[in-house]
Amino acid sequence: MSMTVGDLVLAAPAILLALLLALVLSHFLPLLLNPKAPRGSFGWPLVGETLKFLTPHASNTLGSFLEDHCSRYGRVFKSHLFCTPTVVSCDQEVSRFVLQSDARSFVPWYPRSLTELMGKSSILLINGSLQRRVHGLVGAFFKSPQLKAQVTADMQRRLAPALAAWREQGPGARLRIQDHAKTIVFQILVRGLIGLEAGPEMQQLKQQFQEFIVGLMSLPIKLPGTRLYRSLQAKKRMARVIQRIIQDKRRRRRALDEAPPARDAIDVLMGDGSEELTDELISDNMIDLMIPAEDSVPVLITLAVKFLSECPLALQQLEEENMQLKMRKAGLGETLQWTDYMSLSFTQHVITETLRMGNIISGIMRKAVRDVEVKGHLIPKGWCVFMYFRSVHLDDMLYEDPCKFNPWRWKEKDVSASSFTPFGGGQRLCPGLDLARLEASIFLHHLVTSFRWVAEEDHIVNFPTVRLKGGMPIRVTARD
């Protein structure tokens, strides 16, 4: 018997429900039926356990979601996060295996709003030879003595007027470390990326970037007026500025008989000569590489000030080490170089411990392109794995008294160990890790050798990103 149009209309909800059920089962059955699958739960339909996972929590805890699931299911468990079935790893060996794997096993995966904003040509999303080429070029430039010397000179030059302004305010001047760190670091890194100097155009770019970055953790809805839509528009405006700079550089290169020396990251990528490195790809990646300047590095500096304020013995040793360097260089009549800052062993221990406790990047996600088994756990093809760095950094089996700020622990501990991954790992290890340490070292050196301070109470917020709720206000008094 044939169905009428009315019958089809009445049956439509049931058909849609059946299709939805089939889609859900196609995701879940591989784990439900496999004895090697991690234990766990999936939560509500569609949203899964995402809301519980994102619940704000104290910085020195894993949060109720992780603590509950690890106690019930172990350090590797299944869940449903960001609309995708996920295996969550709080185990250093499993996370290390995934980080070290190549694109034949795992590829990057991010929530949809983030992938929309980064674009398909982002270094965070591309794979294969193109990813290796871009990562290699940028990484080599970020590690180069030339850029480190430029960053050092720029930071010293931009810190000088800030320090002078704080002195002029007199004893007890109140300032918010997070704000000052963001202003200084953004200008310096943007100059290293695209060659843009401080001025009105830099300020406009920073405003657009702030509009862009708040959309990274937003609902994946692109309708006019939504958060994601406004962030995408801001990115388009930034891309126009950067592509104009790229085109100006290309015209100047054509006018010369030979290519000029590389002064910024755009020059480095243009100099490769590959047709794959289009203007769009270069501009997209310059925007993505600005994220540490607005977020990661300033927060690292701010957290270091907070932790030092709460540990007078560490602050005292940091002051002594930096004052000795300052007096020695002054006695020789020499300016501090980037190698001087990186030679400060206890200062580096402070930065390492801040990275461990602060967990500025709490974890990253990868997607399995084939069935992968690691340490007895199955990660099925098409599923994501969330490597939760915070759980490893706060594991009392790996770190004695892990919630205590203890820079001295790094005198004996190896920062390259698999239990310390604040910059990720493997082929996608953050290329700017040396620059982050250098910029934090310079800021801390000039702060502790120029001022004493008293910190006001402030709290670390872990959602949507790590930051200080009040911007870490301190009251400074100039040293004699």
Automatic annotation (TrEMBL):
Residues binding heme, per UniProt: 430
Gene3D superfamilies assigned to the protein according to its UniProt record, in alphabetical order: Cytochrome P450
Protein name in the entry: Cytochrome P450 90D2
Family to which this protein belongs: Belongs to the cytochrome P450 family.
InterPro entries for this protein: Cyt_P450, Cyt_P450_CS, Cyt_P450_E_grp-I, Cyt_P450_sf
GO molecular function: heme binding; iron ion binding; oxidoreductase activity, acting on paired donors, with incorporation or reduction of molecular oxygen, NAD(P)H as one donor, and incorporation of one atom of oxygen
Species for this entry: Hordeum vulgare subsp. vulgare
Lineage: Eukaryota, Viridiplantae, Streptophyta, Embryophyta, Tracheophyta
Cofactor: heme
PROSITE patterns hit by this protein: CYTOCHROME_P450
Compartmental location: Membrane
Membrane topology: Single-pass membrane protein
